[in-house]
Specification:
The chain is an alpha/beta fold. The protein is built from six helices and ten strands, in the order E-E-E-H-E-E-E-H-H-H-E-H-E-H-E-E. The protein has a domain of 103 residues: P-loop containing nucleotide triphosphate hydrolases (Rossmann fold, 3-Layer(aba) Sandwich).
Length: 212
């Protein structure tokens, strides 16, 4: 049974059709990737699935309709466009704020997650002093925090070096062993080839399954 289902989904902004009659299904536990250049419609697709924008057509998650007016059907962690951080707080404090909205996330859980992303030594430093790559890691940590059934990562490798990308690949695969479903956009074919179990190509708002 499909976990995520889109049927004839379209989005028009200022007279321009940016998502064009998109239909696809994703099963629980899959790592679905959306590969395409900037402006192809990748981020809009994620926003539509997360119920952040109104669209024409039908979107369902776990057999429940997604609607911008209603509560989202499941727990989801997300990094969309760029990390949403409070610069005056430390990396730990930024994650602690999110942890207080969820159940059973300990301080140790937060610290272990930040260490896994290569931020040991910076956990209690203010984010305003971080490089773009370090801020990106904190944003990824925000999305991974907790026991979310769905994790959405929009261009997660932005500003990351090769070693950090390799670590992220291992983290995604590790999370996926517990049947976490991932939706990931990227323009990096090498990264996608190493993680994807359901690859899509996005061009001008049209999505097609990637043929290997």
């Amino acid at each position: 049974m499909s976990f995520i289902k889109l049927e004839s989904v379209s989005k028009q902004i200022k007279g321009q059709l940016l998502i064009k009659n998109v239909t696809f299904q994703i099963n629980k536990g899959e790592i679905a990737t959306f590969e395409g250049i900037n402006g192809s419609g990748k981020t809009l697709i994620l926003k539509a699935i997360l119920g952040l924008i109104k669209t024409n057509g039908n979107i369902s998650i776990n057999d429940q309709q997604v609607n911008v007016k209603n509560k989202y059907p499941i727990s989801a962690g997300m990094l969309i466009e760029k990390p949403s951080l409070i610069e005056q707080l430390t990396a730990f404090q930024n994650l602690k704020l999110l942890a207080q909205l969820q159940d059973k996330i300990s301080d140790d859980d937060i610290i272990k997650l930040l260490i896994s992303l290569g931020l040991d030594g910076h956990i209690h430093q203010k984010v305003k002093h971080f490089s773009l790559g370090m801020k990106q890691k904190v944003g990824i940590a925000q999305a991974l925090l907790g026991n979310n059934k769905l994790i959405v990562l929009d261009e997660p490798t932005n500003a990351l070096d090769e070693e950090s990308v390799a670590s992220l690949i291992n983290i995604i695969k590790d999370f996926n062993t517990s049947q976490t479903t991932f939706l990931i956009t990227s323009h990096d074919s090498n990264f996608i080839n190493q993680i994807s179990t359901k690859p899509f190509i996005v061009r001008n708002g049209v999505i097609n399954a990637k043929i290997s």
